[in-house]
Design a protein that fits this description.
The complex is a heterotetramer of chains A (115), B (812), C (489) and D (147). Chain A is an all-alpha fold and 115 residues long. Helices cover 76% and strands 0% of the residues of chain A. In chain A, 36% of the residues are buried. Chain C has a domain at 280-489. In chain C, 77% of the residues lie in helices and 2% in strands. In chain C, helix 1 runs antiparallel to helix 2 and helix 3 (78-105) runs antiparallel to helix 19 (456-474). The model of chain C has no long low-confidence stretch (mean pLDDT 89). The chains are: A mainly alpha (115), B mainly alpha (812), C mainly alpha (489), D mainly alpha (147). At the B-C interface, helix 7, helix 8 and helix 25 of B face helix 6, helix 8, helix 11, helix 12 and helix 17 of C.
Chain lengths: 115, 812, 489, 147
């Protein structure tokens, strides 16, 4: 099924108009509710299509968890695999998390103290 | 041919820095002057004039190099594509005339500008404009050309607004926007050329464009023509010129008219005759494109010529008259170029040499005219023709120069204009010979009429300014330096007019080596005798026609009168055209509007009725609600009354109940006592039964032991049972869990709905009432509340992708 | 050792930002030189990395020594070093300017917080540019979002707070979309590394089409909110106009671009090319970019506040970058990418020049700028160069990007976009040139407030950027050569 | 809050909570838990102390300056350990391959840098909780005073 991207963009813009520029009223509310339903439907479709949780043949069950589960103690020295992943295999991400905490507090403090 | 002996072969390329120096020197000088010269106003003019002279000498220094071949210099990496300077003889001619005009004007301006109070920016920007103009004609590819063209627009904008008053600023803004728009249109053409041909070098590219549709070619050429035509002042695009010229001082106009519009003409020339004509002259589709575009360009040129001349005839202000004269003269050049393209393969050199020579000639006499106008302004303080008169007696030298220039521009034999006009005229005649047809015949007649009109308005100029009663304006003396440039220009005019062979053969015709013209056509031009019967007769025809036009106009004193408002530029051509256009639009618009209006009224009326109906329905509904609510209220009141009555009844029954309770408590006391006595009797009975109990205990203990044995056996059995129960209970639990969840879902209570109170309602109504009218100035995106599902917008993308393309993806 | 340089530069920036709050009392004066030296070091490193990548090609760095599907991978290719160079150079120059300007916009007590946030912002943007891992991308996205909000709201203004709050909400919404997309991608492929995801996706398309489409659309939406593509731009004008001038320069010049670069990487390195033949994502981006270009220019025309006008102009310019992405051709992409750098140069310069005007004369309204060119010739000269560059006058770098974009559009046989580019140039001319004209040639207005002298330390960065605009207008060769290798379609 | 019961109970409980938090941090590589969880427990113990006594009493136990030192220190510690791997000739944040691993898996001192990183994370998280709680509540208090 071919749909013109022009049409798609046009409808997008119409939506933008509805949500950003249309004054509050029944039309706006009705359209919003309608769209929420459509989006909800789309999300439900997506979720229903996802691989079965915990099934053996899920794509997520590949070489990555295999190594994590099988060789983490000997490779990292940590018996707890979760800790092995977050502080060794993906320690860089954890550094990022630490920085997120830091930046959050810095941003909050700079706001509070700037007064 | 003599020309090829004098000049180097086109294929012989000389690498040299000199073209770069020619372009960069005035720019550097401009920078130095801008930094150093702002404080020392007196000397800035002198040094600018010196810089102008040095630039002129630098341009002349290119001449020995040109004897060896084409001069080139490339900067490979610059601007991604490379900046390329390339000087052939044609470029040199234009560079020569530009630097000549600039040198003379700068010398003149160094004294002249004291009437304007030495505007600070004039000299640096004049030099900058000189550099960029030279850049336009000395570059070898379109992007570099465009670079200098834009630079020229911006720097000359500062020249246009030299006076800084309101009309100057308005004219400058118009000029700038036209320039920027023209530049962008030009850029589009360059994009198209580059995309189709893969290069932007100024060389025959027609073969590379063979794949392009003819309409595409037309669009490309149209882009170039509009882009350059705006600068050149081609008629539908000329309207900035009179405004800009009217608002600028003479030294600026002399530069604009004398040299800058040549940059536009040069661009059209290169594009029309070099890029968009086929390299070989065999008949092909491309060839016919060149011919047809030449035909249309020729007609545009004729239109420009006649319209400019007609408008110039009715101007009362010298600057505007000269502006229209410039437009008209550009028409000659465009006509010549168009004829050259139209005659491609036959006598194209005729139109070409006419156009180039006319560009040169026009620089000579139009610069002279503006300088003369400057001297008039310098001495008399006004430029209105109505206020001038009798200058001939007071300024005989000036009068002589004026007559020389006027005869030159009018094409009187013996002066330079005659030569170039004859060439263009001959080109038209050749076209008639070659193709025939009434249109070419008409074109030739229009050409004659245009030339006659030119003579007419200069006659008028002369008659009004130099003859007649003397002006009352104060006359002050002018230094000789103001006249010096005029001497040089006059000399050139005479030399070109009397010795046409030198210029035509050695320069103009020699420059055709850059093009692919037919040799025999070039020979034909070279052998042309300008002082034979036919061209002289044509010139005479022009003069007679001019007199025939001028005399009645003069007799009925059409010039003497103060020009009425409708006689101005706008009212002569622009406004009627605009009005016509407007009326046509209006007629159409009104018809459309009317019908649409009726439609709207019809539909709107119906809709209004419907709305009214709905409204009345609404109000009915309202009243219904009101009445019903009133009834409900009444009902509630009644129920309250009922409630009160009930309350009273309760109270009464309460008091009786209390009495009743008192009585019953008394009864209770009596009963208590009775219980006590029976209790004592019962305790005695219990003691007795205890003895009996002990006996019973003993028997129980014996039976108990037997029972425990039995119980141990049963527990073993029980454990076995337990296991079975456990497993079954697990299943049961799961089942129960599921049912529980189900229950929870079902039992979920509906949320209480909050009744809106009156104030909120009022606010909502207020908000609705204040809905703003559509006003883009008040678009404040800050006020948009994004509490409500901003996400939805983005998810628009989701929806489209999901539901329209998902299926196609599955098939992938 | 040189292979460790990318991660060292990130670590250095993070370390510096951690150290910054510890500088108290006496050491507080050291904060600025320290920040500048760190920025300078990162800039030097980025230049060296360009040399390294040019000489020995792209390389990947395994953080922690773990190979890609298990550990985090940084992939340092031409695009990454290009972005790193752009980010660090502009950040350095803007910080030199901010050293003086910030003291009159925010309080001295929070200066060290500002440096912290600034360094964190740069670190996270470099992280986004270098990473080859979806989750690391998300983590750095978060850092950049919060620190970008921080450098807006640090100026204690009602407007700033409001704007940064709006920015925060929308930006977090975008982050949420990206996170959801990352989760979906992980769910259906089992990998987070770009290369491995790209390997798995063609199979996954057949099995989980809706998931992949949803992930794609979530990425696009998330990143377009963050980079202010047209209908989702509503946070930008407030945020960029009310922030302190150095913040505006960095936000407008860099922050919105880095997300465009990130989505570019995702689209062309992760998602398979066949997908775009079926799904018109690129077309949608293209038309949104066209609307952005036009609408941004038109909105900018009606503005009166100079910084607000510049902010709206940014919306138009980000449209050019997305146009390059949407056209999906080598040359157009080159134009879009080179516009990242060019626009970073000119827009940060324009914001800094506007900041200088506000600092020296206290003028924000465009109408009051009349005659200011005579009082501040160098500043307005730089502004004029920026304006010419915006219009796309040849000789400025704006022309280069427009040239390549337009030629790219013509290569693909879409002259409509050339017309759009030229039309937007004309619109840019209509709102930029009158400012310049009035500033230099307009009738002077007597200054209402007293005129402060412009310190050299603020003027020099503006002039450096202006010189860059001119220099890269004439010699774009090195940048273009670098980018030509960066584009692998 | 001046309830004697709460104060007494908290005074008794807080050390235990802290010990538990430290346990969770230090045994992160052996049992469920780790820096984030343990840090949160530690931080909440301090918050509990401050809540049950008084904000100022809490601030005396752990000053603002100290907490911000801890704040930065946690991050610096993390990065320095990362750079340690680099100094040992391996990549950033490398653990065992750089020779940092020691001890047998399952022992308390094992897993090399994981233990140290958890410590850094724990300190960071705890101080973040505490600082944020303090600043926000003080802000609210001062705002109330002004009104």
């Amino acid at each position: 099924m071919e749909v013109n991207p022009y049409v798609a963009v046009g409808i997008l813009l119409l939506m933008a108009y509805v949500f950003f520029y249309l004054p509050a009223g029944y039309i706006r509310h009705v359209l919003i509710v309608l769209l929420v339903f459509i989006i909800g439907y789309a999300l439900v479709m997506t979720v229903s299509e996802m691989p079965t949780f915990g099934a053996v043949d899920t794509p997520a069950h590949n070489v990555v968890p295999e190594r994590y589960l099988g060789r983490a103690p000997e490779e990292t020295g940590a018996v707890n695999v979760v800790t092995a992943i977050i502080t060794d295999y993906r320690a860089f991400d954890t550094l990022g998390e630490v920085v997120v905490l830091f930046v959050a507090i810095v941003a909050a403090l700079s706001n509070l103290k700037a007064r | 041919m003599a020309a090829s002996e004098l000049w180097g072969e086109a294929t012989n390329i000389v690498l040299s820095w000199r073209p770069v120096a020619v372009v960069l020197f005035p720019m550097t000088a401009a920078l130095v002057l801008a930094v150093l010269g702002v404080k020392k106003k007196r000397h800035i003019g002198f040094w600018a004039a010196v810089a102008g002279c040095i630039t002129f000498l630098l341009v002349l220094s290119l001449l020995p190099l040109l004897r060896e071949g084409v001069v080139e210099h490339r900067f490979a990496d610059m601007m991604g594509l490379g900046l390329m300077f390339r000087v052939d003889l044609l470029g040199f001619i234009f560079a020569f005339l530009m630097s000549l005009a600039w040198m003379l004007v700068l010398v003149y301006a160094s004294h002249y500008l004291q009437v304007e109070g030495f505007p600070v920016f004039y000299f640096p920007f004049a030099l900058l404009t000189l550099g960029s103009c030279l850049g336009v004609v000395l570059t070898g590819d379109l992007v570099s050309l465009f670079l200098f063209f834009e630079l020229m627009t911006f720097s000359s904008f500062v020249l246009v607004i030299t006076r800084r008053d309101r009309p100057a600023m308005a004219a400058g803004k118009l000029y700038l926007y036209m320039g920027v728009a023209g530049g962008l249109i030009l850029l589009f053409g360059i994009f198209a050329i580059f995309n189709a041909a893969g290069t932007v070098e100024i060389a025959p590219l027609m073969q590379e464009l063979a794949g392009v549709e003819k309409t595409g070619l037309g669009i490309v050429f149209g882009c170039f023509f509009i882009g350059f035509g705006i600068k050149a002042g081609v008629v539908p695009l000329h309207f900035w010129m009179p405004k800009a010229y009217g608002a600028g001082p003479a030294v600026v106009n002399a530069l604009s008219s004398g040299a800058m519009i040549k940059a536009g003409v040069y661009g059209i020339l290169r594009v029309l005759l070099l890029i968009l004509t086929p390299a070989s002259l065999e008949w092909s589709e491309l060839y016919s494109f060149a011919l047809s575009s030449g035909y249309w360009v020729m007609w545009i040129g004729l239109l420009t010529m006649v319209a400019g001349a007609l408008l110039a005839l009715f101007q009362g202000h010298i600057m505007r008259l000269l502006a229209f004269s410039s437009i008209s003269q550009v028409g000659y050049m465009i006509t010549g170029l168009g004829a050259a393209a139209y005659l491609l393969g036959a006598e194209e050199a005729m139109g070409y040499s006419g156009a180039v020579l006319h560009a040169f000639n026009h620089t000579l006499y139009k610069t002279a005219f503006f300088l003369i106008a400057g001297i008039i302004f310098y001495r008399a303080g006004t430029l209105e023709l109505g206020k001038l008169g009798g200058l001939a007696k007071k300024m005989p030298l000036l009068t002589a120069f004026f007559v020389l220039a006027a005869l030159g521009i009018a094409g009187v034999p013996g002066l330079n204009g005659y030569i170039s006009k004859t060439l263009v005229h001959d080109a038209l005649l050749e076209a008639y010979k070659l193709y025939g047809g009434w249109d070419i015949y008409l074109a030739e007649k229009i050409f004659v009429a245009g030339s006659a009109l030119t003579l007419c308005y200069y006659l008028k100029f002369f008659q009004k300014a130099f003859l007649g009663e003397e002006t009352r304006a104060r006359i002050r003396s002018a230094p000789w330096l103001l006249y010096a440039p005029l001497f040089v220009l006059g000399l050139f005019m005479l030399v070109v007019g009397l010795q046409p062979g030198f210029f035509v053969e050695d320069f103009v015709l020699a420059s055709t080596y850059a093009f692919t013209f037919e040799p025999y056509g070039i020979e034909h031009v070279a052998r042309l005798d300008f002082f034979s019967y036919q061209p002289l007769a044509a010139a005479l025809t022009v003069i007679i026609t001019a007199v025939a036009i001028y005399v009645p106009l003069y007799r009925w004193k059409l010039f003497d009168r103060e020009l009425p408002a409708w006689f101005s530029v706008e009212s002569m051509l622009m406004l009627p055209a605009a009005r016509l256009f407007y009326q046509i639009l209006c007629r159409m618009g009104v018809t459309l509007d009317h019908s649409v209006n009726r439609l709207y009224f019809g539909v709107g009326g119906k809709f209004l009725k419907f709305c009214r109906y709905v409204g009345s329905f609404d109000s009915n509904l309202d009243s219904f609600f009101e009445q019903s609510s009133r009834k409900v209220y009444r009902l509630m009141e009644r129920s309250r009354e009922l409630d009160d009555a009930l309350n009273e009844a309760y109270e009464k029954t309460g008091s009786t109940a209390r009495d009743f309770a008192d009585r019953s408590s008394r009864l209770d006391g009596a009963l208590n006592r009775a219980y006590e006595s029976t209790g004592r009797a019962a305790r005695g009975l219990a003691d007795r039964t205890a003895h009996f109990d002990k006996a019973l205990d003993k028997t129980y203990a014996a039976t108990g032991r037997a029972a425990r044995n039995l119980a141990e056996k049963t527990t073993r059995f029980d454990r076995a049972l337990d296991k079975t129960y456990e497993s079954s209970s697990k299943t049961a639990q799961k089942l129960a869990g599921k049912t529980l969840r189900l229950e929870r879902v079902e039992v979920k209570e509906p949320a209480p709905t909050a009744a809106p109170d009156g104030r909120e309602k009022a606010e909502a109504g207020d908000r609705k009432g204040r809905r703003p009218a559509f006003n883009p100035l008040e678009w404040n995106i800050k006020n948009i509340n994004f509490d409500q599902l901003l996400m939805v917008l983005m998810l628009g993308i989701v929806i489209f992708i999901l539901f329209y393309y998902g299926r196609a993806l599955v098939d992938l | 050792m040189s292979l460790h340089l990318p991660v060292i530069s990130i670590a250095l920036l993070l370390l510096a930002s951690f150290v910054m709050p510890l500088l108290r009392r006496g050491a507080r004066a050291a904060a600025l030189p320290f920040t500048l030296s760190v920025l300078g070091a990162v800039f030097t490193v980025s230049l060296y990395l360009i040399y390294l990548v040019e000489s020995r090609g792209a390389f990947s760095y395994h953080v922690g020594g773990w190979p890609p599907p298990w550990g985090v991978e940084l992939y340092i290719d031409h695009l990454a070093v290009y972005m790193m160079m752009v980010l660090s150079s502009i950040c350095l120059v803007v910080m030199v300017y901010g050293a003086r300007d910030l003291y009159h916009e925010i309080r001295a007590e929070v200066m060290s917080w500002y440096y912290t946030l600034y360094l964190l912002l740069l670190a996270s943007m470099i992280g986004i540019a270098l990473t080859n891992d979806l989750f690391t991308l998300f983590v750095f996205l978060e850092i950049s979002t919060i620190s970008a909000c921080g450098i807006i709201s640090i100026k204690k203004d009602r407007e700033c707070i409001e704007a940064s709050f709006k920015y925060l909400i929308l930006s977090v919404l975008g982050s949420g979309c990206v996170l959801l997309g990352v989760a979906m991608i992980y769910m259906i492929t089992g990998y987070l590394n770009y290369d491995f995801v790209a390997q798995e996706l063609p199979q996954a398309i057949a099995e989980y089409p809706y998931n992949i489409l949803m992930a794609l659309s979530l990425f696009i939406v998330g990143f377009s909110v963050k980079s202010a593509l047209f209908p989702l731009h509503i946070w930008l004008p407030d945020a960029h106009s009310s922030a302190p001038s150095p913040s505006s320069a960095v936000l407008s010049g860099l922050v919105i671009k880095i997300y465009a670069a990130a989505i570019l990487r995702l689209l062309f390195r992760v998602f398979p090319a066949e997908l775009f033949e079926v799904v018109p994502v690129l077309d949608i981006l293209l038309f949104l970019s066209v609307l952005a270009v036009m609408a941004g220019s038109i909105f900018a025309m009606v503005q009166e506040d100079i910084k607000r006008m510049l902010a709206y102009s940014s919306i138009a310019q980000i449209g050019f970058v997305f146009m390059g992405i949407g056209l999906f051709g080598n040359r157009a992409l080159l134009g879009g990418l080179v516009h990242i750098f060019n626009h970073a140069l000119m827009k940060s310069m324009l914001f800094l020049a506007a900041g200088l005007i506000i600092y020296a004369a206290g003028i924000r309204n465009i109408r009051d700028l009349r005659g200011i060119g005579v009082r501040m010739p160098l500043t307005m000269g730089a502004f004029a160069i920026g304006a010419f560059s915006m219009v796309g006058i040849p000789g400025t770098n704006g022309f280069i990007s427009k040239w390549h974009l337009a030629l790219g559009a013509l290569d693909l046989g879409r002259p409509f976009f050339v017309a759009i580019i030229l039309l937007s140039s004309l619109l840019n001319g209509i709102y930029y040139l009158p400012i310049v004209i009035n500033a230099f040639f307009g009738v002077k207005i007597e200054p209402r407030s007293e005129h402060r002298d412009v310190p050299g330390m603020m003027l020099v960065p503006v002039l450096i950027l202006a010189a860059g605009v001119i220099f890269f207008g004439f010699y774009p060769g090195p940048i273009l050569a670098l980018l030509e290798q960066a584009i692998v379609l | 809050m001046k309830d004697i019961v709460i104060r007494t109970v908290c005074r008794v409980i807080v050390p235990f909570v802290q010990v538990y938090g430290l346990y969770v941090i230090f045994h992160g590589h052996l049992s469920p838990g780790g820096g984030f969880a343990g840090g949160a427990i530690l931080g909440s113990s301090m918050v509990l102390f401050a809540l049950s006594f008084h904000l100022e009493a809490g601030a005396q136990k752990l000053g603002h300056e100290t907490s911000s030192y801890l704040e930065s220190g946690g991050g610096i510690w993390y990065i320095l350990i990362g750079l340690l791997g680099l100094a040992l000739g391996s990549n950033f944040l490398t653990n065992r391959a750089a020779g940092l691993g020691f001890g047998l898996p399952g022992q308390l001192f094992s897993g090399g840098m994981i233990f140290l990183l958890s410590l850094g994370i724990g300190v960071k998280v705890a101080s973040t909780m505490f600082t944020l709680f303090y600043n926000l509540s003080e802000e609210e208090g001062s705002g109330g005073d002004h009104q």
